[in-house]
Design goal:
about 40% helix; alpha/beta; single chain; Nucleotidyltransferase, domain 5; globular
Length: about 230
């Protein structure tokens, strides 16, 4: 279970940073940054908060509501599908993380970031592999990011029926893949992802199971405005 061991080693204000939605075929990637008060965190969060992937939907919603009442600050950022397709999913994720930290309204001294690639923040950054299962601050960011993105995908599902986004959140389930082939792509599908490209006849069939990565490709930096997210 996550605890405050990483936070206690840090000087100054600490925020946890995590993302949701790197892998789906549709929708934005969303990041959250959370600053917790170690002395005043509710007991339920201290004892039960965990990596969002280990929690069910009801638990995530409950903990997100408690976090919104008890956290010192929460920032949410996103990178749109257009940005993902232009600058690749890794760089888009780092962009979303930077936006989330900027949205805190408080300048942290250090950011504990889930993963092994540091976003270009103005504060100190410590990456923590598997951090959402080790640090309570990162676990909090994991839950906020996941809840925020799932709500957004449920709203999009009302406008784009048939893809199952209300329950698959845009991930590459068999249902979603079949819907892309049957219904075509929406403006919210990631055209740089191979299953979507295949549906658009942009890649060969033998390539359709592989994500077409561009992490080593020189690309221009997007200046696209922040995506508006639901409350």
């Amino acid at each position: 279970m996550p605890d405050f061991a990483f936070e206690k080693r840090c000087d100054g204000i600490v925020c946890g940073v995590d993302e949701a939605g790197r892998g789906p075929l549709a929708g934005p990637v969303v990041a959250a940054a959370v600053i917790l008060d170690r002395r005043r965190i509710p007991r339920l969060l201290r004892e039960c908060l965990d990596d969002s992937k280990k929690l069910n939907a009801e638990e995530r919603e409950d903990y997100a509501a408690i976090l919104r009442r008890s956290a010192v600050a929460i920032g949410i950022g996103a990178a749109s599908v257009g940005e993902i397709d232009r600058i690749n999913i890794l760089r888009a994720t780092l962009t979303a993380m930077c936006r989330a930290v900027a949205a805190l309204g408080i300048a942290p001294a250090i950011a504990l970031v889930d993963g092994n690639v540091p976003p270009p923040l103005s504060c100190l950054v410590e990456t923590v592999i598997g951090g959402d299962g080790l640090s309570l601050s990162i676990a909090a960011a994991s839950v906020i990011a996941k809840v925020t993105r799932d709500r957004l995908m449920r709203r999009l599902a009302l406008r784009y029926g048939g893809y199952g986004w209300d329950h698959n959140a845009g991930y590459a389930t068999e249902e979603h893949r079949a819907a892309i082939l049957a219904l075509g792509c929406t403006p919210h599908h990631r055209r740089s992802f191979a299953p979507v490209q295949f549906a658009l006849d942009l890649v060969r069939p033998q390539d359709s199971l592989h994500h077409v990565g561009t992490e080593n490709t020189e690309v221009r930096v997007s200046r696209e405005a922040h995506l508006r997210l639901p409350p």
